[in-house]
Amino acid sequence: MQWISTASQKIDERLYRVCVWVKKYHADAINRVVLTVDLSKARHDPDEDQVRAELLCGHYFLLRKENASNSAPDDQKFAFLPDGRNLCWQTATPVLQHLLLNKNVPESLRLLTDYIHMRLARLTMVPMSGTIMNEALLDSISWVKVDLTYFWQYEQLSSHLGPIQITHKALVRFGHLAKNDENSSAIRILRQRLSSEFLQEFQMAEDELKRKQSLMGTMDVKMLFHAHYPSQKMLVARYKNGWVMVDCFLFHHTKPKKKAKNKTTVAKPQLKEG
Predict the structure, then answer these.
(1) Do strands 144-149 and 155-157 pair parallel, antiparallel, or not at all (unpaired)?
(2) What fold characterizes domain 2-149?
(3) Helix (H, G, I), strand (E, B), or coil: what is residue 206?
(4) pLDDT tens digit string along 30-82?
(5) Ramachandran area for residue 77 (φ above 0: left; ψ -120 to 50: alpha; else beta)
(6) Would you say the pTM of this structure is higher than 0.90?
(7) Three-state DSSP class for 18?
(8) What does the pLDDT look like over 25-43, one tens digit per residue?
(9) Residue 57: which of 24, 26, 32, 27 has the closest Cα?
(10) What is the DSSP string of 20-69?
């Protein structure tokens, strides 16, 4: 099992420091860091600052490439995570515990919750004791420190268009459309689809393309699909920082087969008996 532990502390108005390490006890972890998160420009309810800051930092730490460095033991490396079945997330924050359990989650946190459970499906939440949390917060004064703003960095996958960033909404929608069972990995399926030689572009009608361009705020908008799964469409748009997958849809664009015309049997006229 892989571990990630997060402990957060408010240090100023809408400013949090979050300690992250990759074992149950911080003393056993080589990979550990303190992330300071500035939420002053965030638009959500300030009452959600702590859970959002801690979730952001845990997600950032799990997915950043530096965690696969050769200096760390194998059980402290995070290579590509297809899901959360082998992941334990330890936290002492009650709201984050509920979110990781997908229980009693407020509607304002629903999108983030759905994303986490789609991206890290079947993860295990481990309650953190107050002793573990306090000792980590105290010892973290000597850890590596990184400053962050409250900004979610989307995961990036390869495609024939180049790198594509995957929004939370798009991954959730794609997972609901593409997963055959709960044990499937949405991000793994999507990675295979986007890099496949069978990936094709669906030519949208002119009026629909213009509507999508206006909605996305860019002229570079494409609808992609895999030839083996033609009804599952992936909407991508190109912005200043590259391509972004913004949504997924389910509709068939292939023409239905023509039904065979029913043959009408004409009854032969009966001859009258003379």
Answers:
(1) unpaired
(2) Nucleotidyltransferase; domain 5 (3.30.420)
(3) helix
(4) 989 999 999 999 999 999 999 999 999 999 999 875 565 556 666 666 667 89
(5) beta
(6) no
(7) strand
(8) 999 999 899 999 999 999 9
(9) 32
(10) EESSSSGGG-SSEEEEEEE-TT--S-GGGHHHHHHHHHHHHHHH-GGGG-
Asked whether residue 189 carries a pLDDT value surpassing 80, the answer given is: yes
Phi, psi values for residue 40, rounded to 5°? -65, -30
**The tokens of 204 are what?**
């949208």
Phi, psi of 176 (to 5 degrees): -65, -30
Q: Which residue has the tokens 């946190």?
A: 109
Query: Closest by alpha carbon to 158, among 129, 112, 134, 190?
Result: 190
**∠ Cα 183 186 191 (to 5°):** 130
Residues making up the chain, counted from first to last: 274
User: Is CATH 1.25.40 the right assignment for the domain spanning 155-250?
Assistant: no
Q: Which residues contact 106 (CB under 8 A, 6 or more apart)?
A: 48
